[in-house]
Amino acid sequence: MSLATKYNPQDIENKWYDYWMKNNYFHSTPNEKEPYTIVIPPPNVTGVLHMGHMLNNTIQDVLIRRARLKGFNACWVPGTDHASIATEAKVVAKLKEQGIEKSDLTRDEFLKHAWDWTDEHGGIILEQLKKLGASCDWERTKFTMDTDLSEAVNKVFVELYNKGLIYRGYRMVNWDPAAKTTLSDEEVIFEEKQGNLYYLNYKIEGSNEVLTIATTRPETILGDTAICINPNDERFTHLKGKKAIVPIVGRVIPIIEDEYVDIEFGTGCLKVTPAHDQNDKTLGEKHKLEVIDIFNDDATLNSFGLHYEGKDRFVVRKEITKELENLGCLVKIEQHMHKVGTSERTKEVIEPKISAQWFLKMDTIVKPALKAVLEDEEIHFFPKHYNSTYRHWLENIRDWNISRQLWWGHQIPAYFYGDGVNDFVIASTIEEATKLASEKLGKELTISDLTQDPDALDTWFSSWLWPISVFDGIRNPDNKEIEYYYPTNDLVTGPDIIFFWVARMIFAGYEFRNEKPFANVYFTGIVRDGKGRKMSKSLGNSPDPIELMEKYGADGVRVGMLLCSAAGNDLLFDEELCAQGRNFSNKIWNAYRLVKGWEIDATLQQPQSAKIAIEWYQAKFQQTLQDLEKSFEQYRISEALMSIYKLVWDDFSSWFLEMVKPGYQQPIDEKTYNAVIRFFEDNLKILHPYMPFISEEIWQDIAERTTEEALVIANYPEIVKVNEPLISNFKFASEVISAIRNVRKDKNIAFKNQIECSVLNNENSTKDFDAVIEKLGNLSSLEYVTEKVEGALSFRVKSNEYFIPMTSDVNVEEEKAKLEEELKYTEGFLKSVQKKLSNERFVNNAPEQVIKIERQKEADAIAKVETLKASLVNL
Question: How many CB atoms neighbour CB 872 within 10 A?
C-alpha cells in the first residue's frame, strides 16, 4: 500500500473500523482463555455523545484493547438505558408540538409513541461511539427495556417482595412537579440559595393576642394544622392548651408542645404543615394532626388553596405575601440563606409530598456492600478517597423509593383486585397474579378482575442489575456466560453516579449472586471548560465531539483528552490538547515515512553506533513497559500515556532514529533496519490502545498481514530484565552530545564540518556510547587524554572536561569577552553561595537537604570557574 506524504485520519478511520468489524475482532464467546470483562455505563437511549462520554469510553477502550493484546478473552458489553424521566419528557414535548396531550392517550398509545421515538433516536450514540474507535462487542448490545432484561427486573421485584424487602407505604417523598413523579433521595440535589424568612402573625383564639412565626414558604399556611412551641420555652408558657387562627383561611388549629422546636430559630414558634414537610409530618403523626395537601401534581394549588386554586406555588408566594401584608399579618421579611432541593434531572424545585409508593428496604442489603469495599477489599475504588464517600452514604442510607409515576419504563408487577390497602398481589405475569389473588381472596377471579399498578420502576432499578442481566444471570443464574464473564473486571464511570449506580450494582451483586459485580471501579473526573465550569449544552461551553474528531482525528482527540485526565480529577478541557494529540499522530507518521524511505543494503556491516543504540532502546523500551504495568495497576491511565508519549517522541524519534539513521542518500544495513522495524512494531503495540487507527494503519503497511496478524489482536510485548546501567550511561552520553551541539552553535562551528574532540575522563565514564557521540556530534575522533589540551575550546559535563580545537570559525576576541563575562558572573554567584554557607545561623537552622543543595551549587560553581579560567588561558 502506498504511504501518503501527509497523515489524514479521515482516510483511514472508517476503513480500519470496518475491517475490525468485518473480521469480528471485538466479539467474545467463552473459551479456555482468562476473561476480561467490562460493561458499559449505559448512556440514555435518546442521548448523543458528549465530552463526558468521550472521556469515559476512551478509557474503557484503552483498557479493553490492552487486555485483548495481552491475551485475555476481552468482552466489552455495550448498551443503552431507557431513562424513564428524560425519555418520557422528550416524548411528551414532541406530542405537545403535534397538539397531543399525554392525558388524552391510553398507556398503550403513549408507549407506541415512546417506542417510535426510541427506534428513531436510540442508536445514535452507539454509532457515534464507533467513530471514537470503541471496540465493543456490538453483537451483545443490550437495552434495559429488552424483553429478557425486563423479565429479569420483574423476577427481582417479585423475589425481593417475597423476602419482605419491598413494601408499599404512605411516605413523605420527593416530588418533581415538572416530571410529575417521585424521586429517590439520590436524585435530589440540595443547593444553597438566597431566600426570605417571612414573619407572620397568627391570632390566638378568644383574645386580641397574636403569636409570630417565621417561615420560608408563606403559601403553605393554607395547609397549616398546628402551631408548635417548645415546652421549655418560658416565653410561650401562657399559650399552652390554647388555639390559633390561620390567617386568610380562618382555620382554628391547636398549639402543641414538642422539644423538636428550636428555641433559637426564628421566633421559637413553628407552623406545622404535615403534608408538605418531612419533619412536620413526623410531628403530625406524633400528635395526630390533620393532613391537608394543598398542591396538585404540577405544584399548582388545589381547592384547599381557596382563591389561589390553579396558580403556581411561586406565583402564590408573591400574591399571598401581599395579601398578608394588606391584612396586617406580615410583620417583616428578612433575607435568609437555606438549602433547596432540586431535581437532578429537570432542575425543578422539589415538593415534599405524601403518597403511596413502593420502597426497597436498605438496612440489611447494604451490609455486604460495605464489607466488600471497606473491610475485605474485594472491590477497589480508584482514587481510594471515594471509599469515605461511599461509607458515609451507606451508613446513612434510607429506604429506596423505587416507584415512578411514569408510563415509559418497567411497569410495577403489582396487581390490585380490591379497594383495600393490601388488596394486591405481586407476580411476574397477570396470569400468575390472577391465580395468587384467587387464592388470597378465596374465590375464582379472572384477568379482567385485576388492575396492574400504573407506576413504573425507577430506571436505576433495572440498571443496578446491568452486569448480571446482560449475561442473563437473573433469569438463568447458572448459564455458561454468567459463569464465565462474571464478576466483571473493571467499571469506568463518573463519580456523580457512585450512589445512583455503582453502590446499587454492588448491592445487587451480593444479593442475587452472593459475589461482587466487578473488581475495580475507576472514577473519571468531570470534563470542565477552561473556567472550571461543567460542560453542558445550556451553557454552550461544550464542543461537539464529532466535529472535534473530524478536525483532529479520533486518535488525536483520544490522546488530547487523556493527557490531562488523572483518575478522579476533573479535566479542564482545552482544544489545544486535541491539537497536541494530532501533532503526536503526525510525529509517528513522519517517523515511519523516514524509516520507510531508507534503502537497505544486505552486504553492509552494522556500525557500532547502531549496535549500542539498539541495545539502549531495547533497555529503554523495557523500562517504559515496566512503568506502564505499574501505571495500569494503579489505573493511572494518563501517566501511562505520557510514558508512551515520551518514549515515542523523545527516545525513539528524537534519539534512536538519529543514532541509527544512515548518512544522506546512503543505505542502511539490514540488521539495523530489522531492529528498527521490530521496535516500531513494539511501539505500535503499546500505542494501539490509545491510538488504534494510526497504529493499525502503519502496522498493516509495514508488512503484508493475514487477518490473524492484525494489530488489534497482536501479542503485547513481553517484559524482560532492564539493563539499567545502559540507560544511565546513555543519559550521560546524551548530555555530552547536547553540550557539543551547544558549543558548535555558540562558536559558529558549522555542523557539516567534522571536528576532533578530546576528553579528560575525570568521571570515569563508559566508552560504550563513544561511537554514538562521534556520530551525533559529527566528530572525526573522540580521544581520551590525561591532561588538559592547550589552545583549545573546553567545556564540562559533570567533572569530565572536553576539548575542541580552535577553528577559523571562532572569533578569539569575541570568545574571550564572552568567557570573561561568564567568569565574572560565575565568581559572583560562587561568592553569594559561599557567603550563605558561612552564615552559622543558616547552616544550623536550614534543613539538611537545603544545605546539601547549596554545597552542590558551590562545588559546581568552583568547577565552572576553573574551566572558564582554563579556557581563557587556552585562547
Answer: 14
- This prediction's pTM: 0.86
> Percentage of residues in the chain with pLDDT exceeding 90?
68
Q: Can you give the pLDDT at residue 459?
A: 94
3-state class (DSSP) for residue 36: strand
For residue 27, pLDDT beyond 90 = yes
Q: Residue 151 — φ and ψ, nearest 5°? A: -65, -35
Residue 286: count of CB within 10 angstroms of its CB: 11
Tell which residue, 56, 62, 57, 61, has the closest CA to residue 524.
56
Please write the tens of the pLDDT for every residue from 779-838: 999 999 999 888 788 888 988 999 998 765 566 677 677 778 888 888 898 888 888 888
pLDDT in tens, 288-314: 999 999 999 999 999 998 999 999 999
One-letter amino acid of 399:
D
Q: Where are the domains of the chain?
A: 31-141+463-524, 195-347, 545-722, 753-874
- Neighbouring CB atoms inside 10 A of 634's CB total 13
195-347 shares its CATH topology with 545-722: no
Q: How many CA atoms lie within 13 A of 135 on its CB side?
A: 33
How far is Cα 176 from Cα 844, in angstroms, rounded to an integer? 67
What is the second-level CATH architecture of the domain 31-141+463-524? Answer: 3-Layer(aba) Sandwich (3.40)
- In this structure, the strands spanning 456-457 and 269-272 are unpaired
Sign of CA dihedral 323, 327, 333, 336: negative
Q: Are 482 and 476 a contacting pair, CB within 8 Å? A: yes
CATH class of residue range 545-722: mainly alpha
Write out the E strands in 763-851.
779-785, 792-797, 800-805
* pLDDT at residue 873 greater than cutoff 70: no
* 394-426 exposure pattern, b = at least 16 Cβ within 10 A, e = fewer: beebebbbbbbbbbbbbbbbbbbbeeeeeebbb
Q: What is the mean pLDDT of residues 675-704?
A: 97
- State residue 563's pLDDT score: 85
Buried b / exposed e along 465-496 (16+ C-beta atoms within 10 A): bbbbbbbbbbbeeeeebbebbbbbbbbbbbbe
pLDDT at position 686 over 70: yes
CATH 2.40.180.10 fits 195-347, yes or no: no
d(CA 556, CA 552): 5
